[in-house]
Amino acid sequence: MSVEFIEPSNSPENSPQNLSLESTLKDLALFNFQVDSSYLAKEVARLFQSHPLLPGVILTVNGEFLGMISRRRFMERMSRPYGVDIFACRPIIAFYQIAQTDILILPGVALIVMAAQRSVQRPPELLYEPIVVQLEPQVYRLLDVHQLWVALSQIHQQATWSMSELYYNLSITQSELEAANSQLKAANSELYRLANLDGLTQIANRHCFNEYLEKKWQELGEAAAELSLILCDVDFFKTYNDTYGHQAGDACLQQVAETIVEAVHYSAGEVSEETLVARYGGEEFAVVLPRTSSEIAVWIAERIRVCVKELEIEHLNSAVCSFVTLSLGVASTFPQPETSQENLIAAADRSLYQAKDLGRDRVILDAIKLDK
Question: What pLDDT sits at residue 300?
């Protein structure tokens, strides 16, 4: 096993200095952990245990680059039922062949600001995956995405300082300075919006949903409060697109999203400010309901179902009725430190598919007691 570890420090004085808009990925602190594909998964697990900041490992075959396995994906797979029994004593390549995903590989000369743009364009489930940086032919390193955002923040700060100095040197008027600051704030606001909102429906995107659910899981676990989740799916949406076209399909999703938001805010009462409605993917939507019992969550889900149906969006080729309808799955639990929010998502997903199996256009509550 070839191991070279360049560990980025959390201390500001040890952070990369003098970053600018021209700074590239090779200017950042990179990780170089390379393991041959024949190494056992349990040996890789010991590597992750020994180096808690390590975002992943680079896999090689006869010294040549094969791929990358992130810490997050490794731990998630190994923590599944029988994960350790299945993979621990097998070569890591067996694990990789099952768990591999698309890898973002960028040259070391790539600008940091461009790399950040490429990174955020990845699918939501890959946003936290490390970036593979190619310094030379067959010379690869790993970049923790967190380090990329820290560097981007430093560049943004440096650019702001440079702008302020330029304005001072040019003796611009106060009104011009206020206009520049206003534009900067507007740009930052737009950047935040793009990073957290779905472009089509203008509600929270999958990335925002994942972060919010994880935050509430920790928060409500400490408060011993209940957390509910609703997953919604537009019935026979592919048929709708095939019948009316993708433009009509986009308009349908926009109407459904707006109606879900209105129904949730009308129904959630005192906790409405804590609720989150997000586009989960495609024609699927998710509703996070903190401090909400399963009974109330089912009632809210039923109101969503009725409100969407009352829109009477024509869907003549639906096997349910002549209008657009929703199938909804509900799950509730009291978050525990030893469990994961993935369990709640899986339970809601099970109840959603049960609703589909039973004829769609209905609400089903998962019967498993997640808090046990």
Answer: 95
CA 345 vs CA 34, 168, 197, 287, 333: distances in Å? 34, 53, 20, 11, 11
Handedness of CA 51, 56, 60, 63 (dihedral sign): negative
Q: How many Å apart are CA 209 and CA 211, to the nearest integer?
A: 6
Asked if 226 is an active-site residue, the reply is no
d(CA 361, CA 57): 46
The DSSP secondary structure of 44-112, one letter per residue, reads HHHHHHH-TT--EEEEEETTEEEEEEEHHHHHHHHTSTTHHHHHTTSBHHHHHHHH-----EEETTSBH
Overall pTM surpassing 0.85 (yes/no) = no
- The string of pLDDT tens digits covering residues 241-260 is 999 999 999 999 999 999 99
Between 348 and 188, the more confident residue is 348
Which pairs count as long-range contacts for 339-344, CB under 8 Å and 24+ apart, including other chains? 339/370, 340/79, 340/217, 341/213, 341/214, 341/217, 342/76, 343/370, 344/213, 344/217, 344/227, 344/229, 344/370
Contact between residue 252 and residue 193 where contact means Cβ atoms under 8 Å apart: no
Residue for token pair 């621990």 = 88
Q: How far is CA 241 from CA 237, 320, 322, 346, in A?
A: 6, 16, 15, 27
DSSP type of residue 275: -
* Ramachandran category for residue 83: left, alpha or beta (phi over 0 → left; psi -120 to 50 → alpha): alpha
Could you tell me the sign of the dihedral formed by the alpha carbons of 176, 180, 185, 186, in that order?
positive
Catalytic residue among 283, 295, 310, 312: 283
Length of the chain measured in residues: 372
Alpha helices by DSSP H, the chain:
41-50, 71-78, 83-87, 92-99, 112-120, 145-169, 174-196, 206-223, 237-244, 246-267, 294-310, 341-357
Quick: pLDDT tens for 58-85.
999 888 899 999 888 888 888 888 888 8
**Which pLDDT belongs to residue 280?**
94
pLDDT of residue 13: 34
